[in-house]
Predict the 3D structure of the following.
Amino acid sequence: MSPTDATATGGLSAPTREVQAVKADNVDSRGRLLAADGTPLKASLARALRQEKLRAFMLVAPLLLFIVITFVAPIVDMLLRSVDNEIVPDTVPRTVSVLERDFDPASGETPGEAVFRALYFDMFLAAEAKEHTRLGSRLNYEQSGMASLFRSTGRRLDDMGDTYKDPLEDLSTAWDEAGYWLTLMAGPEGGAGATEVAAAARARVLTLADGDLEGDTDFVPGAEIAEILPTTAAAYSDFAMFASLVDGDDIAEEEPWEAVHAALAIDLENAETLQAIRGYDGPGAVLLKETAAKADTLPPAELKPAFIDADEDWGDPANWQVIARYSGAYTPGYFLAAVDMQKGAEGIEMKPDNEQIYLLLFWRTLVLSVTITFTCLLLGYPIAFLLANLPMRVSNLLLILVLLPFWTSLLVRTSSWIVLLQQQGVINDTLVAIGLIGDDGRLEMMFNETGTVIAMTHILLPFMILPLYSVMKTINPSYLRAAKSLGATDFTAFWRVYFPLSVPGIGAGAILVFILAIGYYITPELVGGTSGIFISNRIAYHISSSLNWGLAAALGVILLGAVLILYWCYDRIVGIDNVKLG
Amino acid sequence: MAALPPYATTGQRVWWYGFRVICGLIFFFLIAPIMVIIPLSFNAEDFFTFTPGMLALEADAYSLKHYDDFLTNDDWQGALWNSLRIAPMATFLSVALGTLAAIGLSQSHVPFRGAIMAVLISPMIVPLIISAAGMYFFYSRIGLQGTYWGVVLAHAALGTPFVIITVTATLVGFDKSLTRAAANLGADPVTTFFRVQMPLIVPGVVSGGLFAFITSFDEVVVVLFMGSAAQKTLPWQMFTGLREQISPTILAVATILVVISIMLLTTVEILRRRSERLRGMSPG
C-alpha cells in the first residue's frame, strides 16, 4: 500500500499529497489516523467491530430463534391464555353487545326480551357448531350450574323454533321448502345484495368453526329483503353460511333451521315490516304477502318465557350478572380464582371459606420448599465442607457419590423411595424386624408431607452440595489457621471466619434448590398423597383432568413469576454464566 | 482438616471422628436408596421388599424374571424404543445449535449478551410443569401436540442450556491466538473451526451432549403432556407403573438405568478431567 493510495481516497489535491507523503503516510489532512486501505482508522475499526458483532450474533441467532419458537412462544401463549376470555364474545357475540347496551347488572332483574332474542340466535348457531357446551363449561368456573344450563337449553332450541315453524307450515308448505327460502332471501340481484349481513354471518361461522371448513358459498341476502326482514336475513345467513361452509351442504336443498322461522315470526310482529311487505314485489313476494296478511294468527314472538320454560335458571338474575361480568375478551377471573378470590356483585371479594384451596396450596408449596431447602443445607454443608478440605484424590472419589444420584434418573430415585418408605417397605420391615415398632404400628412415611420432604431432599441434595463445594474450594485454609493461631477456638474460627466466606455458596445452593423445589411435580405426585402435593400438581390436574386451562395458566403464571424473581436474584448473586455442572 | 494432629485434645478427637460419622451417614443417605433397588430387582416374588429367603441368601429367592419381563413385554419394549428414537434426535438438535451459540457467546463483542444468555438458559430454570403446560397449549394450537417432532423439539429446547453451559466452560480457557495462528497460516474459518477449535472443545461438547441426552431420556413431565400413546417413553411407562402399582419390573428397569447413569457419569468425569488437563487447569 503506497502513500498515494492512502491519500487518494482522502480526495486531496496534488501538492498537499506530496507534503502528506513526506510527513506521515498514515495520517490524512485532518490529522486522523488511516488504516492500511486508506479509510480512517476509527471507521475501519468500527467496521471490524461491527463485523465481529454480526458474526457472533449470527452464531447465536439459530439457537435464539429456536428457543424463542419452541420455548418462549409457548410461555407467552400461556400468559395470554391466563387472561383470555374470547370464548364468551366469540360464542354469543350479539348477546354480549345487547347485554352491554340494555342490561344493568346492578338492577337485580333479568334482562329484557331483546337480550333473549339475541341469545336465541347466538345459541342456535353455537349449538349447531357444538360450541355452546364449551361456553357453558367456561362460565361454570365462575358459577356452578352454568354448564348444565347451557347443555339443557341447547337441546330445547329446536322446540322453541317449532313453536313458529309449525304455524308457518300450516299457512303454506312452502315455508319448509329449501328452494323457496333461498329464492326469497337471495333477492333478485345475486351477489350484490346486503353484503355486510353475509360478511357478519360468515365471520361468526368462521370464528365458531375454528378453520375446519368443508365447502363455500357465494350466498348474499337481497338488499331489499334484508331491509324489510332484518332478523330473518341475519338468521338465514347464519344458516346458509354454516350449512355450506362447515357441513358442505347445498343450501338450495337444505331446509332452513327452526331459528329462521322464529326470526320471521319476530320480524312479522313489527307493524312497519308488515307495511313494507305490502310494497315488496321481489322474488317470493306472493307467499310472503299472504303470510304477512295472516301474521296475527302466529303465536306471539316471546323468547324470554320460552327460555325460562326450558330452564328456570334463565330467570335468575345472578346467572345474568355472571354472563355480563365475564363478557369481555379479557378477564382477571382466572387470576382471581388462583388466589381464591372472585368478582362478586360489589367488586372483588374473597371466596367463601369452604371454597378456598389455592392460597393454602401456595402456602404449603412455600413451606415444603423452604423445609426441603433447609434440610438440603443441613445435610449438604458438612459434605461440601468435608469434600473441600480433603486431599484432591480422596475428594474426587467421594464426589462420585454425590454425582451418582445427580445422574440417576429421577424416576429411579422416586421408585426407590417408594420401595423404602411404603407401609410394607424396607424401612418399616427393618424397624419391625429389629423390634423398634410393632407390626401394627408401622410408620406412615408415604402419601404425606414426610414422604415428599424425604424424597425431594434426597433428589435435590446434589444441587446444594455442588455450588457449596465450588465456593468452599476457593476458601484459603490458611485463614482458619491464622484465626486459630490468634487464639480462636475451633468453633469461633469456623463461625467467624469460614462460615461468612461460605455464605455465597449457601445463597447459590439455597436459591437453586428452592427454585427446583417449588416447581416440582413428579415426586410429590407419586409420594405426596393429598397432603404432600404442590401447586404444580394442581396445575397438572387442571390441564389434564378438569380441563380448566385458563386457571392452570393463571396458576402457572404466578408460579413462574415467583421463579423468575428468584432466577433474577440468583443471576445477581452467582451470575448465570457461573453455573457449573458436575 | 486433612489429618488429626497429634496434639489434638480429646474434644477435638471426638469431633473429628463424629464429623466423619455424620458425613458417612449422609453419604449413606445419598447412595443407599439407589443401591437398595439393585438386589430387590432380582426378587423371585412380586414384592417391593426383601423376602425372608432373600435375606437368608437362598439362591431360589433370586431370579431374573423381572428382567425377562422387561425384555419380552411389548409395553416396556415399545417405551424403550420410543426413548431411543426421541433422545438421540433431541440431543443432536441441542448439541448442534447449542455449540454454535456457545461459540458465538464466548466472542468478546456480543450485543445484548446478558439478555440472550438469560433467554437461552431459561428452559433450565422455568419449572418443568410450566414449560409442559405452555408447550401443551401452544403445540396443540400448531398441530404438533402428540407428534414425534413435537416431543423432540420440546426436549431439544430443554437440553440446550446444558450444552451451552458445558461448552462455554471449556471455551473459558480457550487461547484465541490459536485460531489467529491458524488463520495466519492460511486456514479458512471452517478449517480453523474443525482442525483447531473443535478438538479442544470436544470434551465440553460431548459432556453437554450427554447432559442433553439424559435430560431427554429421563424427562417425564413434558412428554406426559406433549406426547400421545405413540410417544410413550421409558420414564412415562415407569411413572404410570408407579402410580398404578403394576409390577416390580420397574425395579429391573431402574437397575438398568442406574448402570447406564454410572457409565455416563464415568464418561463425563473422564472427559472433564481430560479437558482440564489439556488446558492445564488442574494438576491431576
User: Anything to note?
Assistant: The mean pLDDT of chain B is 86. Chain B has twelve helices and no strands.
